[in-house]
Amino acid sequence: MPELTDLSVIRTLCEKYNFALSKGFGQNFIINPGLPPKIVDASGVDKSWGVLEIGPGIGVLTKELARRAAKVVSIEVDERLPPLLAETMAGVENFKLVLQDVLKADLRALIEEEFPGMPVAVCANLPYYITSPIVMKLLGDRLPIRNLTVMVQKEAADRLAAAPGTRASSAISCAVSYYATSKLMFTAAPGSFYPAPKVTSAVVRMDIRTTPAVQVEDEDGYFALIRAAFGQRRKTAANAIASGLGLPKDKVIAAIEAAGFDARIRPEALTLEDFAAVQRELK
């Protein structure tokens, strides 16, 4: 098979299968041949690992994963792609395509069926428009996976990798840090993709914690508190929490002060432990 990062090859394949790239699916194919090996290096997988890929596209990253891992299962929602992938992945025995919406799929059952006894990683060039929902499903469902290595928009990567309690932190930063340790690995210029996005991309690796970073009694309430705090970034944590959760402001201020913080503290100044302390006081 010719090099799948070659633009002329991509165009020929698209024409052959009457395939037009979809903005709705956020399709940007990798055309920088150095990127797939670099992404797989960042994931740390080898021949003992199973890999779950989300959105294989025409198989550029998929082929590198299949070369380096024991087995690759790729989930794709675009029903136009299987015939094209059947050609690009022909003869790759350790590859399987699953035509499903990743947000609706039973990923736990899929992983247990396809990767028995293997350490499992998720590796993907994620559609930018749906990065947060996919990452939160992968983490929140507490799947039997060791790590996630994803290519996303740089702005989203900064949020995924930001430490709680820092200026760049957000609700998703806190959620990621609760479930995993994260690190921004490297960036990729717009010209590394076809069509070229208008922004820089970046790869983030998230290593799943064996236990959450903090212990909370009511996990749903804890995340609801964090989402409310960051829901109105220009407000103080007290104002945002009171508004977001429909609580009396004086009650929220009293809880924040009882937890040891100034009533005017901003949400980005609070760590995971700090939010847990505020939640306890609100109880």
Automatic annotation (TrEMBL):
Domain Ribosomal RNA adenine methylase transferase N-terminal: residue ranges:
35-210
Catalytic activity field: adenosine(1518)/adenosine(1519) in 16S rRNA + 4 S-adenosyl-L-methionine = N(6)-dimethyladenosine(1518)/N(6)-dimethyladenosine(1519) in 16S rRNA + 4 S-adenosyl-L-homocysteine + 4 H(+)
Just give the chief location class.
Answer: cytoplasm
Source domain of life is: Bacteria
Alphabetically ordered keywords of this record: Cytoplasm, Methyltransferase, RNA-binding, rRNA processing, S-adenosyl-L-methionine, Transferase
Species in which this protein is naturally found: Faecalibacterium prausnitzii L2-6
- Gene Ontology, cellular component aspect: cytosol
Q: Which PANTHER family match?
A: DIMETHYLADENOSINE TRANSFERASE (PTHR11727), DIMETHYLADENOSINE TRANSFERASE-RELATED (PTHR11727:SF7)
Q: What is its EC number?
A: 2.1.1.182
Q: Name the positions where S-adenosyl-L-methionine binds.
A: 28, 30, 55, 76, 101, 125
Q: What is the primary gene name for this protein? A: rsmA
Which family does the record claim for this protein? Belongs to the class I-like SAM-binding methyltransferase superfamily. rRNA adenine N(6)-methyltransferase family. RsmA subfamily.
Pfam families named in the record: RrnaAD
Taxonomic lineage is: Bacteria, Bacillati, Bacillota, Clostridia, Eubacteriales
Query: What is the name attached to this protein's record?
Result: Ribosomal RNA small subunit methyltransferase A
Q: Which SUPFAM superfamilies match?
A: S-adenosyl-L-methionine-dependent methyltransferases
Briefly, what is this protein's role? Specifically dimethylates two adjacent adenosines (A1518 and A1519) in the loop of a conserved hairpin near the 3'-end of 16S rRNA in the 30S particle. May play a critical role in biogenesis of 30S subunits.
CDD domains the UniProt entry points to: AdoMet_MTases (cd02440)
Q: Which Gene3D superfamilies match?
A: Ribosomal RNA adenine dimethylase-like, domain 2 (1.10.8.100), Vaccinia Virus protein VP39 (3.40.50.150)
Any one GO molecular function term: 16S rRNA (adenine(1518)-N(6)/adenine(1519)-N(6))-dimethyltransferase activity
What subcellular locations does the record give?
Cytoplasm
